């Protein structure tokens, strides 16, 4: 989908008080999903039209894995808006920066540099790990720089502490490189639908999220038909850290939903944990559609 089309679909989201949804049946369904894979499912959804919310383990910390990359992309976009750098700025690339899962980095490395726009596309569309490290160094100095920027955006919870690939460790009880479903969803709402970024920046990131194919078996797989649109960023780490964060556009021009689903602790295969995302989305649609 072209960026100008996405720009035309951006909606002004009113600031509405959070209205808690009746969640007893859905919460029980989420608990059943957890039992199925012997893990934890953290979930938080916001209907930006009505302000209603639905959550399960919404305030438990869980490893972000690569979902942090959409937050990093938003930081880069905000820096372009502020004039700190430009989308066409060239950033040097070095062979010793390569870490596993480097599809975009490997294409760009022979040139010796990449633009900020290419690096952002690499981390959002292909979840490229060395591209994320390059952007963290160039725009944040360290992972803690992203955390500091998130605090400026009003997120007091989400934190990034390590580089790729160490941030995927997901050790029990370790708060590093974690967020909560509620905090992540509120920050996504602010950045991608609210006042955190300009409409042009939001349209650019929407287009990159739309182009990503990593989440086809996760939240995207749980909507009823082609009348629904889901754009998302996935993350996959150790100890069952299989995640997806998304904007969901119901049919008939309804206001978008923000949906964050983070998992941990299961030893089941990734495909089985991806199916949990799809079923969680089905339960959300049943509750709200």
Q: What is the helix fraction of residues, given as a range?
A: 40-55%
**Top CATH class:** Alpha Beta
Care to count the β-strands? 10
Relative strand content: 15-25%
Largest sheet: 6 strands, mixed
What is the rounded Rg? 18 Å
Strand arrangement across the biggest beta sheet:
1-3-2-10-9-8
Mean pLDDT: 93
User: What letter string, H or E per element, gives the SSE order?
Assistant: HEHEEEHEHEHHHEHHEEEH
Q: Give the CATH H-level superfamily.
A: DD-peptidase/beta-lactamase superfamily
Q: What structural class do the secondary elements suggest?
A: alpha+beta
Shape: globular
**Number of H- or I-type helical stretches:** 10
CATH architecture: 3-Layer(aba) Sandwich
- Total domains, how many? 1
What CATH calls the topology is: Beta-lactamase
Poorly predicted sequence stretches spanning 5 or more consecutive residues: 1-8, 12-23
Distance between the termini: 25 Å
Structural summary, described in words:
The chain has 289 residues and is of the alpha+beta class. It has a single domain, classed as 3-Layer(aba) Sandwich (Beta-lactamase). Helix content is 41%, strand content 17%. The chain has ten helices and ten strands. It has helices at residues 3-9, 24-37, 68-81, 103-108, 116-125, 129-140, 143-152, 181-193, 199-211, 270-288; strands at residues 19-20, 40-47, 52-56, 62-63, 90-92, 113-115, 178-179, 229-236, 242-249, 257-264. A hairpin with a 7-residue loop joins strand 9 and strand 10. The longest helix has 19 residues, at 270-288.
